[in-house]
Specification:
179 residues; mainly alpha; Four Helix Bundle (Hemerythrin (Met), subunit A); two-stranded antiparallel ribbon
Length: 179
């Protein structure tokens, strides 16, 4: 299993330097999934109905459609990890149902990553495909909250308490938010 380390130059920037053995690729994927859960959780929590169906125009997906798509991405990631790649475009359900589906899809993928079954797709491909796409869409959800008039507070995510395995609705409180 590959391990990742920060370059020694990172210490010059005031960053903690991690040892070669600090994170396997699988653990880094799990931390990425937890990061997505934390960031998206902040956006979908207490989202008003006016935001859920907000229409930004020019064929931009609504937040509801984007959230459904992110769940599709994690279902796809799980299918690839299991060696049976399959894409399904699910029709969006209600907002509460899609929020639940989102967190369930994260948990299913994270549970597989935490297990001992082999990955049938490389960690790099899983990250560069569905996970990176999901991060992009989480950013879109945040932007749509702002332009719909119900922004979330900014946050220093470096300081956030994000832990692999914590991929449900319940997330730790923000450490350093700002307007």
């Amino acid at each position: 299993m590959q391990n990742f380390a920060l370059l020694p130059a990172a210490s010059l920037l005031g960053c903690a330097v991690m040892s070669q053995e600090s994170l396997s690729a699988r653990e880094l994927l799990r931390h990425s999934v937890a990061t997505i859960a934390y960031r998206a959780g902040k956006i979908v929590r207490d989202a008003p109905q006016g935001y859920v169906n907000f229409d930004a125009g020019q064929k931009v997906r609504t937040p509801l459609q984007i959230l459904a798509h992110i769940s599709d991405l994690f279902d796809w990631a799980l299918s690839m990890a299991k060696g049976k790649p399959a894409w399904h475009d699910a029709a969006p359900a209600s907002w509460p149902d899609e929020v639940e589906r989102f967190f369930n899809s994260l948990k299913s993928f994270d549970d597989y990553l935490a297990g001992s079954e082999p990955l049938h797709a490389s960690p790099e491909k899983l990250f560069q495909g569905p996970l990176a796409d999901a991060l992009t869409h989480v950013g879109q959800l945040a932007i749509l909250r702002r332009i719909s008039g119900v922004p979330i507070r900014g946050e220093n995510y470096y300081k956030a308490d994000i832990a692999k395995g914590r991929v449900g609705k319940e997330q730790s409180a923000a450490k350093l938010e700002f307007d």
